[in-house]
């Protein structure tokens, strides 16, 4: 290091120009500061290879195998994919299942559709909160405090938060009591728990913080003087929102969308708790086939889930460019 | 008192509207949990919904006394140990990664997306892939081996993003000054870099600890013979739900909150000192 210090002083004294080879050497020393990159990344790289890359690649491999009793037959086959798509009697015009898609494809589509619905709900519920925190609250201390209050559930167990809906939604739950007391219904209603309603409510509550966070950060980054300038030029509140705030917050919206989308696509535990296992997501299908040791078919479902997720993420990133944010 | 201009009036009205909505939102995300807290003190003969039939610690006692089903205390211990190991590894790895990413290097883009893939990949996929692979290789799964592996894959991107943000705002002239004065790389790190990034490391550790402590999907197929706490909770959920589960949920949540409070306290103390 003292070497490089000396080299630099030469230039400062300025008795003569620095010879090119010494300058190159000085630059090389400069660039080589810090610990060697190889050592810094090696542990993480090995870890990710072992526990992320190899397991995912092996899922792809398993889809081409078939399950025998007790072990896997490793000869190449496409039967699992056929079983995923093909439905008996698909082309038979006499069968009642003529041209109806396979149940696995239907489950995948339902998971996809439902995920989009919940994602939209999360954005609708979460956006005003992020807006309120980032642009309506003036003091930084309060902003951070109220934001943390919103984010704390993210660091607690989501299983427990799902369980907590049971005393709220049941036949004798709090929500039914409230409806009865307000005279909206005469007797307790059943559709609140173990229903799509309960499932939607629980998922929105579990994942809405994932939309509040990113949107809050991109809203907080907006230069306040732009808003002031617009106001001085006579823009109405809704004009400021539509033409300045919303476009500038879109990267945060996209990150939130991607987060929520991938989380709910892989969801399986909440459905059991608040839907009473009456619905199947791709996640539950995978677990069911794992339980009966049909690993190849579980793997096919997993690959299809991954493909559907990639399609969703690509669509989101096509709609909104988030590169500015990263 | 001066009369309010229409603009000021509108602003106050807007803020009240949003404040009210924020209140409702907080009730929405905390309400069910609070109801669960209260119901965990349900009387002996009470059920899983209101009204309360007296108040007692009956269900809490059931948590402590050894039970025939499940192994709650053991599961809690395992979850804690696992969370602490994951915390240390996450803090260490994410700091090292973020330090490497201060410079461009060959394959940096690829490595970045691989780290982020850990965030994007549903836990069930990772669980399935590793579980079947280990079964093929004849290696047994356990919470401290395969479970630990996938937990770090999940927490590392969070820690990494935190540390990237820390180094983005880092003033590297301080390090250069120390180097020019002849400090070795280790001295520069120990004396200059580490004290400045320590709050960030604590934040990365918070993500490592809490996300691992609560992780369920990734451990489902990989915990081996002994359950972690979330797996134990899930097992109890599939049986008849009783207020014991609420007591367990309350205890676990309070513990999480205490840990978050502790991390935040350490973070603010370090932050103040770093300045």
Structure commentary:
The complex is a heterodimer of chains A (326) and B (275). Chain A contains 16 helices and two strands. Chain A is mostly helical. Chain A has two domains: 2-85, no CATH class; 103-319, MetI-like fold (Orthogonal Bundle). In chain A, helix 5 runs antiparallel to helix 13 and helix 10 (196-207) crosses helix 14. Chain A is flat and about 70 Å long. Chain B has 275 residues and is mostly helical. Chain B has one domain: MetI-like fold (Orthogonal Bundle), CATH 1.10.3720. Chain B has helices spanning 6-39, 58-64, 72-100, 108-120, 123-137, 143-168, 173-180, 185-213, 229-238, 243-274. The mean pLDDT of chain B is 86.
Q: What is the distance, rounded to the nearest whole angstrom, between the alpha carbons of the first and last residues of chain B? A: 43 Å
CATH architecture of the largest domain in chain A: Orthogonal Bundle
Write down the secondary-structure element order of chain B.
HHHHHHHHHH
Q: How would you state the average pLDDT of chain A, rounded?
A: 81
| Main structural class of chain A | mainly alpha
Query: What is the tally of beta strands of chain B?
Result: 0
Helix-strand sequence of chain A: HHHEEHHHHHHHHHHHHH
Determine the fraction of residues in helical runs of chain B and give it as a percent range. over 70%
How many discrete structural domains of chain A? 2
Outline the biggest β-sheet of chain A.
2 strands, antiparallel
Per CATH, the class of chain B reads Mainly Alpha
Write the layout of secondary structure elements.
The complex is a heterodimer of chains A (326) and B (275).
Chain A: H1 2-13, H2 20-31, H3 37-62, E1 66-67, E2 72-73, H4 79-85, H5 103-136, H6 140-151, H7 158-163, H8 166-169, H9 174-181, H10 196-207, H11 209-220, H12 224-232, H13 237-265, H14 269-275, H15 282-291, H16 295-319
Antiparallel strand pairs in A: 1-2
Helix pairs in contact in A: 1-2, 4-16, 5-10, 5-11, 5-13, 10-14, 11-13, 12-13, 13-16, 15-16
Chain B: H1 6-39, H2 58-64, H3 72-100, H4 108-120, H5 123-137, H6 143-168, H7 173-180, H8 185-213, H9 229-238, H10 243-274
Helix pairs in contact in B: 1-10, 2-10, 3-6, 3-8, 3-9, 4-6, 6-8, 7-8, 8-10
């Amino acid at each position: 290091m003292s070497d490089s210090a000396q080299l630099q002083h030469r230039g400062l004294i300025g008795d003569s120009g620095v010879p090119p080879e010494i300058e190159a050497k000085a630059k090389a020393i400069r660039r080589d500061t810090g610990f060697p990159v190889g050592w810094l990344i090696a542990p993480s790289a090995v870890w990710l290879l072992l526990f992320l890359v190899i397991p995912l690649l092996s899922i792809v491999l398993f889809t081409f195998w078939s399950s025998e009793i007790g072990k896997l037959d490793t000869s190449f086959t496409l039967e699992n994919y056929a079983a995923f798509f093909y439905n008996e009697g698909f082309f038979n015009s006499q069968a009642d299942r003529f041209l109806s898609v396979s149940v696995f494809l239907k489950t995948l589509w339902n998971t996809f559709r439902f995920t989009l619905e919940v994602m939209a709900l999360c954005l609708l519920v979460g956006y005003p909160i992020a807006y309120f925190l980032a642009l309506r609250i003036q003091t930084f201390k309060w902003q951070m405090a109220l934001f943390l209050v919103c984010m704390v559930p993210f660091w607690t167990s989501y299983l427990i938060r799902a369980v907590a809906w049971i005393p709220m939604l049941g036949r004798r739950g709090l929500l039914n009591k409230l409806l009865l007391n307000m005279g909206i219904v005469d007797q307790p209603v059943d559709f609140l728990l173990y229903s799509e309603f309960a499932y939607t409510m629980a998922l929105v509550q579990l994942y809405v913080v994932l939309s509040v966070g990113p949107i809050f950060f991109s809203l907080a980054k907006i230069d306040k003087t732009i808003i002031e300038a617009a106001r001085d030029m006579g823009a109405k509140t809704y004009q400021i929102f539509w033409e300045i705030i919303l476009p500038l917050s879109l990267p945060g919206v996209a990150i939130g969308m991607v987060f929520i989308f991938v989380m709910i696509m892989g969801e399986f535990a909440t459905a059991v708790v608040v839907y009473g296992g009456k619905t199947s997501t791709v996640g539950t299908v995978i677990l069911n086939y794992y339980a009966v040791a049909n690993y190849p078919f579980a793997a096919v479902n997993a690959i299809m889930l991954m493909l559907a997720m990639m399609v969703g993420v690509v669509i989101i990133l096509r709609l909104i460019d988030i590169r500015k944010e990263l | 008192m001066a009369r309010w201009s229409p603009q000021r009036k509108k602003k106050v009205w807007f803020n009240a509207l949003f404040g009210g909505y924020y209140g409702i939102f907080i009730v929405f995300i905390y309400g069910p949990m609070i109801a669960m807290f209260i119901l965990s003190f349900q009387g002996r003969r009470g059920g899983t919904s209101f009204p309360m039939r007296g108040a007692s610690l009956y269900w809490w006692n059931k948590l402590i006394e050894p039970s025939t089903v499940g192994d709650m205390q053991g599961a809690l211990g395992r979850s804690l140990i696992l969370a602490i190991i994951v915390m240390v590894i996450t803090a260490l790895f994410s700091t090292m990664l973020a330090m490497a990413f201060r410079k461009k290097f060959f394959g940096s883009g690829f490595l970045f997306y691989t780290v982020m893939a850990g965030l994007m990949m549903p836990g069930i996929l990772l669980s399935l892939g590793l579980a079947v692979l280990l079964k093929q290789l004849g290696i047994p799964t356990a919470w401290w081996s395969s479970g630990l592996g996938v937990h770090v894959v999940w927490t590392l991107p969070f820690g990494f993003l935190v540390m990237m943000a820390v180094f983005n705002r880092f003033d590297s002239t301080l390090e250069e000054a120390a180097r020019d004065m002849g400090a070795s790389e280790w001295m520069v790190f120990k004396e200059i870099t580490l004290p400045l990034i320590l709050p960030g490391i604590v934040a990365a550790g918070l993500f490592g600890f809490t996300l691992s402590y609560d992780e369920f999907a990734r451990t489902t197929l990989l915990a081996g013979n002994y359950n972690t706490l979330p797996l134990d909770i899930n097992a109890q959920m599939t049986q008849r739900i009783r207020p014991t589960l609420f007591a367990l949920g309350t205890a676990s949540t309070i513990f999480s909150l205490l840990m978050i409070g502790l991390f935040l306290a350490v973070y603010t103390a370090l932050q103040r000192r770093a300045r």
